[in-house]
């Protein structure tokens, strides 16, 4: 008679076999069919999806502090990558938002794989929004429920810092919250993407994932990896009630590995929803700030 430990091991082998089958699905219909055929071990479809989508890396955690110059170089490279990527042509429409002009687009790139770009208008000056993101990083969760935690780890230099963030889960609880350690670069730029504090064309807050001592992956979170990304805020004069006011063309470039074996069609829907939800909170914060006379 098999021991209880042998039964457990056999069950884990069976689960792993089914998970590997799920990792290779290519369509929503195929995923649903396989999930429905795997109602074993007392697992529901949601249970299977949680296991599949939230599988953590088994790689050992290794981290060491880099030099200031190394962080600065990495930050400048990440900003240049974000600038070059967000300005690429021939984007593919993923989803339109309920507000006119809101669009989520995607593009397959050689360097980073599939990237997503949101574009929409926010009724506030671009510099105000930029300063909020730049200087009030730790206060983001107070007005944005898609961010559960935002912590400043270390300031590297002017416009360069390390931060730790936890983002809310999605998919009705199926995709678990993720955490990220981000090297961030904030700056005012000209039309060529070069630094320009005197007469900026736009403002940018870019970020790339790094590992640092003291911030290993948590047991109750999945450590995501941000390949390339930024928020870009470009001033634009808009006529409102017969007078001109400065608003912001808000763009969000996102390309991150959420880990877990999440099918591409699930990622497409998840990223589009996150971006369209995010802008709702940005606009609400801008409206509340205007009502308080902050701009």
TrEMBL record:
Keywords: Coiled coil. SUPFAM superfamilies: Bet v1-like. The keyword Coiled coil applies. GO terms for molecular function: lipid binding. Residues 89-291 form the START domain. PROSITE patterns: START. GO terms for biological process: vesicle tethering to endoplasmic reticulum. InterPro entries: STARD3 (IPR051869), START-like_dom_sf (IPR023393), START_lipid-bd_dom (IPR002913). It comes from the Eukaryota. Residues 1-28 form a coiled coil. One of its GO terms (cellular component) is late endosome membrane. The keyword Coiled coil applies. PANTHER family: STEROIDOGENIC ACUTE REGULATORY PROTEIN-LIKE. This is Carotenoid-binding protein. It comes from Danaus plexippus plexippus.
